[in-house]
Amino acid sequence: MSHADREAFGVYVHWPFCLSKCPYCDFNSHVRHAPVDEARFVRAFAREIETTAARVPGRQVSSIFLGGGTPSLMQPQTVGAVLDAIAKHWTVARDVEVTLEANPTSVEATRFRGYRAAGVNRVSLGVQALDDASLKALGRLHTAREALDAVAIARAAFDRYSFDLIYARPDQTPRMWADELKQAISEAAEHLSLYQLTIEEGTPFFGLHAAGKLQTPDEATARALYDVTQEVCAREGLPAYEISNHARAGAECKHNLVYWRGEEYAGIGPGAHGRLDIDGVRHATATERRPEAWLLNVEERGHGVVSDDSLNSEERADEFLLMGLRLAEGIDPKRYAKLSGRQLDPHRIAMLREEGAIAVDADGRLRVTKSGFPVLDAVVADLAA
């Protein structure tokens, strides 16, 4: 059995540009007022793909994710050229999932058919809210109506699509959120990513929050909003398969599962992270974040990698635990033991089971329970200790 049959292999491609910077965002995104030289970036993407494929040859690509930034600012032929480069240097699975993140504006929606023709078969729309006041507060450039129109275009162009919403927004009540969520599910069909608004250091929201100009819900309300999220989604047939991701059975995002199951993926483009297995050692890679600096690096030496760390067995096992316990399916403790060279502590498992934070299935899989998920970080810390 070849490496390709056994494990999923994902390729993440980062398009770092946005039309404007959202005040809550701490991702690697950049606003440029001059037009971006897409042809030059495509050549660099292709070059970095080639260099990476030389390090991990013979992989079969099971998923591709074009993230950002705002990938829907790319011309469809740019996307097509990136996908061609991937197919040239690796084998691409027949049932490959190719996701593109898009802003739900009418301008970008006009490109959806072009992306479909280029090979994209799933879109993820950054809707973020379904009411105009919240969208404005979140610095989004679209209205709720425009977002829903874009969702309708996505539905016509793609078999699979998903959208993101941000909750625990200022002044949001559980009742309002339940209504918004029901509306979202009626539009979303198969997959939703639902994130609590977090105030990240270095963003405009951080300053506003510190100055008392931005009130986020208190802990009890945030918890009630989380509970509403779980209840409404489960009732409507989109249970959480990961702490912030909900899907109908079989509609999970394959690419996200690569991350959470601790499988291998290549990170291409400015500020992209990767996990590559080379000669039995797992490498954690990261590329230069500044787009122009990344471009020059790739043109000069074939890649933009600025850090490439070999993970030891302990680090590898901790990462497997940290990512895997985010999934409703949980982890196989035998895989943890194989990675780390030691068993998870049975006493800790017994204690966490008694508290109702984790469950152990008949086949030995370890899962965080519904009541354990809101305190996931503490559960993981306890198990990893």
UniProtKB/TrEMBL annotation:
One of its GO terms (molecular function) is metal ion binding. It comes from the Bacteria. Signal peptide: none annotated. Keywords: 4Fe-4S, Chaperone, Cytoplasm, Heme, Iron, Iron-sulfur, Metal-binding, S-adenosyl-L-methionine. Belongs to the anaerobic coproporphyrinogen-III oxidase family. HemW subfamily. PANTHER family: COPROPORPHYRINIGEN III OXIDASE, RADICAL S-ADENOSYL METHIONINE DOMAIN-CONTAINING PROTEIN 1, MITOCHONDRIAL. NCBIfam families: hemN_rel. This is Heme chaperone HemW. It comes from Bradyrhizobium pachyrhizi.
